[in-house]
Specification:
The complex is a heterodimer of chains A (500) and B (245).
Chain A (H helix, E strand, L loop, with lengths): L9 E5 L9 H5 L5 E4 L4 E4 L9 H5 L5 E5 L12 H13 L2 E4 L14 E3 L20 E4 L7 E2 L2 E2 L6 E4 L3 E3 L9 H14 L3 E2 L16 E5 L8 H6 L2 E5 L10 E3 L6 H7 L7 E3 L9 H14 L6 E6 L4 H10 L4 E5 L8 E2 H6 L4 H14 L7 E5 L5 H10 L3 E4 L1 H7 L21 H4 L4 H25 L15 E3 L4 H7 L2 E2 L3
Parallel strand pairs in A: 11-21, 12-13, 13-14, 14-17, 17-18, 18-20, 20-21, 22-23
Antiparallel strand pairs in A: 1-4, 2-3, 5-19, 6-22, 7-10, 8-9, 15-16
Chain B lengths: L1 E3 L5 H13 L4 E8 L13 E7 L9 E7 L13 E6 L15 E4 L20 E4 L12 E7 L21 E7 L11 E4 L3 H18 L3 H6 L2 E6 L9 E3 L1
Parallel strand pairs in B: 1-2, 2-3, 3-4, 4-5, 5-6, 6-7, 7-8, 8-9
Antiparallel strand pairs in B: 9-11, 10-11
The chains are: A alpha/beta (500), B alpha/beta (245).
The complex binds iron/sulfur cluster (2 copies).
Chain lengths: 500, 245
């Protein structure tokens, strides 16, 4: 037991019969959990340094390593779990705010797993997507109130939109919070698969301007890297008001992560903290939001859709209605399980509401007000697979953002230590020794594969429902049935119970 | 070239301005301006735009190069995220002047509102400056990360305070020069007053002279008062706030 009273979280088990003391693990672990004892001439480990990122386990040539949860931590206690006790030790030792990475890991209900999809039987034929056309094309942007035609030709001038081949985009993750190689991977994958990635609030690296046609540039309260060139570089602009992992609070990229490339892209001096204030101090109302939306439209000559991203909070439906009326072309709603490069633990785990309920509430509200048709909704957070995508679209989303899933496709092992800057998988780090572990070409291929795989699966599920265009599934909640849900939940989700 | 903006919707006005800039116009005079927003937004290049009347909010947002002369008061958030250029306001301006401004200069003859210079930053050769002739509201230079904020307190009525409360709260870069003493209780807890150096004196002189050249003050008179320099205690005010979960 070390002086700060902490016991290790994980146990590093080295099978001495297999270990050849090659020191691969020593070099691989940025947390310095492995070291070479020169006197003994063998590799040894320090359990308390391990974060269970599994890098050494995967890289060990003889499979000598395994990482386990440290056995019996404290005497069993349902209230005072080992976790709650250790949190107090840490705060007692440091006086600090507990900070963590990745999304909320608490066992709140996962509504995706309480909703089931429909399929055709007898009365309407299902469709085989391998042999019949199946349309996933998705447009994100404002829709005109009506379309006018003259001599068979569309004469209504359409507002600017993003055209997606698949209803999945890569969500905002800034350069600084993740590595340039991670950005490159997502940018290339977007181009390959006909979709979009989002810069996050840290600017756009000069090497990535070439992917502008597949890029959404973000504008947040810190305005990092925002200049006219940046605004015009992307296909769309997203104003970040909030993030699901930390609603109501700002961002803070520590100076250690601001190396020269991050500094150049964010346009701030090297080594300085990049602080994003909690609110945009030019926005205290929907009317002010309107002002920011239109200042961005003015600066880009009305050529780009401008969206607004908010965290799913209690009043999300009313806020979304205000955003639609403020002139946003799309609204991104980020649920309380959304990932983060760094967030205060208590905020991450206790603030905000589940995306499934938020999404349904927003879609219902905008429909009731007759304005759903005007804007697109992008649902963000906790999309783990293609059936989550299908369910989100049936609940009312136009498309979904994936962030965590995208990082996992690049090799993330969900150790939740993104905030430390020591990501052994080369993703949430700026350390050149670590970032080189992610090859952007391989990364792009893997992220693109994931999108392609999900695309096939979405088509399969649509075909099963007898639907041949994604448009017919949007907000089509009859395709969903709830299990293990209260009447109140069903009511908010706007779906029937299974069997009804 | 002259544009009569009487009764003109901002969108049309700004389009005319942008078209003129695109055609290489070097001086554009806008008459009868009355609250039209976003004038100069995202405009690049070296053009001088004279604004006769009060422009609306978010003037010169994301602007990159032009010079804007306002012959009246400005409203909220001029120079929002401005990258380069110059703004001279012959009057007062509202809240959040120069929000996240990264380059260029803003001169305001009279007073400014709340949160002026918030999150102003600097980068390489870009060091933005805002010079305010009169007084500033609360949260002057909040979250300031770079650049220069200058407050002169000229022509204030007796008993009128030059600086509002919470001056420099969250400041972690840049410098403020205030002509006259700032009471301790008005300072944010991240800011301290330090001695002026020769470099500071030269900088102050340069900016004061430019300010005076626009508004007809005598630089010697303005410089006769003592200036105080405010800088952040720390470039990383929140560096020790966290521990890893
Ligand atoms: S932190 Fe990762 S690389 Fe280091 S010992 Fe633990 S599992 Fe292995
Ligand atoms: S991105 Fe890296 S640090 Fe973050 S959870 Fe994944 S593996 Fe861990």
């Amino acid at each position: 037991m070390s002086l700060d009273l902490l016991t290790p979280e994980f146990l590093i088990e080295r099978d001495r019969n297999r270990c050849i003391d090659c020191q691969v693990c020593v070099r691989q672990c940025a947390n310095e959990a492995h070291s070479f004892d020169a006197e003994e001439e063998k590799v040894v480990s320090k359990d308390e340094k391990c974060v269970a990122c599994q890098r050494c386990v995967v890289m060990c040539p003889t499979h000598a390593l395994s990482i386990r949860r440290f056995p019996l931590e404290f005497r069993e206690n349902a209230l005072w779990t080992g976790r709650t006790i250790k949190d107090i030790y840490k705060q007692a030792a440091t006086g600090g705010i507990l900070s963590t990475g990745m999304g909320n890991d608490k066992p709140y209900p996962i509504y995706w797993d309480h909703m089931l999809l429909n399929a055709s039987q007898v009365t309407n034929p299902s469709i085989d997507p391998l042999r019949e056309p199946m349309e996933l094309k998705t447009f994100i942007g404002r829709k005109p109130e009506k379309l006018e035609f003259k001599e068979g030709k569309l004469i209504t001038k359409l507002p600017p939109r993003m055209e997606l081949d698949v209803p999945i985009l890569f969500s905002a993750m800034s350069f600084g919070s993740i590595s340039l190689n991670a950005h490159k991977s997502l940018a290339r994958a977007s181009q390959q698969e006909g979709t979009f990635w989002n810069t996050g609030e840290g600017g756009l690296h000069k090497d990535l301007y070439q992917y502008g046609g597949n890029t959404i540039v973000q504008v947040a309260s810190g305005r990092f890297g925002v200049d006219p060139e940046y605004l015009n570089a992307g296909a769309a602009i997203e104003i970040k008001i909030g993030q699901g992992a930390k609603p109501g609070i700002g961002g803070h990229l520590p100076g250690e992560k601001v190396n020269w490339e991050v500094s150049e892209t964010r346009m701030i001096p090297e080594g300085t903290d990049a602080i994003s204030p909690a609110p945009h101090h030019d926005i205290y109302s929907i009317e002010d939001l309107h002002q920011l939306i239109f200042s961005l439209k003015e600066a880009t000559n009305y050529k780009k859709p401008v969206g607004v991203k908010i965290a799913a909070v209690h009043n999300v439906a009313a806020i979304a209605s205000g955003i639609a009326r403020a002139g946003a072309d799309f609204i991104t709603i980020d649920g309380f399980r959304g990932g983060t490069g760094s967030a205060p633990l208590r905020t991450r785990d206790s603030v905000g509401i589940p995306i499934e309920l938020a999404l349904a509430a927003v879609d219902t509200r905008l429909r009731d007000e007759g304005i759903r048709g005007l804007v697109s909704i992008i649902s963000a957070s906790s999309i783990r697979n293609s059936s989550d995508v299908v369910k989100a679209i049936a609940l009312g989303a136009d498309a979904v953002y994936i962030g965590t899933a995208a990082l996992i496709s690049l090799g993330c092992h969900m150790c939740q230590k993104c905030n430390t800057g020591k990501c052994n998988w080369g993703i949430a780090t700026q350390d050149p020794n670590l970032t080189k572990r992610l090859n952007p070409e391989i990364g792009a291929e893997r992220a693109a594969n994931l999108i392609r795989a999900w695309k096939h699966e979405i088509k399969e599920m649509l075909g099963g429902m007898g639907i041949n265009a994604l448009e017919s599934l949007r907000g089509n909640r009859l395709m969903l049935r709830g299990v293990w849900l209260s009447d109140r939940d069903l009511n908010i989700l706007g779906i029937k119970a299974a069997g009804e | 070239m002259r544009i009569d903006a009487k009764g003109m919707y901002y969108r049309q006005l700004n389009q005319l301005v942008k078209e003129a800039v695109a055609q290489g116009e070097k001086e554009i005079v806008l008459d009868n301006i009355n609250g039209q927003r976003y004038i100069g937004d995202g405009v690049r290049g070296d053009v001088r735009i004279v604004i006769n009347g009060t422009p609306g909010n978010d003037m010169a947002a994301y602007m990159d190069g032009p010079e804007l002369i306002v012959n009246a008061n400005g409203q909220d958030a001029p120079a929002n995220t401005m990258n380069d250029g110059k703004i001279v306001i012959h009057g007062s301006a509202g809240d959040t002047v120069g929000y996240a401004m990264r380059g260029g200069k803003v001169f305001v003859r009279n007073n400014v509102g709340y949160r002026v210079g918030i999150h102003m930053k600097e980068y390489q050769d870009k060091v933005p400056a805002i010079v305010v002739g009169g007084k500033a509201g609360d949260f002057f230079g909040e979250y300031m990360a770079g650049g220069i904020l200058m407050l002169l307190g000229l022509d204030l009525p007796e008993g009128q305070e030059m600086v509002g409360n919470y001056c420099g709260t969250g400041m972690h870069g840049g410098v403020m020069y205030v002509r006259g003493e700032v009471p301790e209780y008005k300072l944010g807890k991240e800011v301290k007053v330090v001695e002026m150096t020769e470099v500071d004196d030269a900088k102050v002189k340069e900016l004061v002279e430019e300010f005076c050249s626009y508004f007809g003050y005598d630089p010697a008179e303005v410089l006769a008062e003592k200036f105080y320099k405010l800088i952040p205690f720390n470039k990383r005010p929140y560096g020790n706030l966290y521990c890893t979960y």
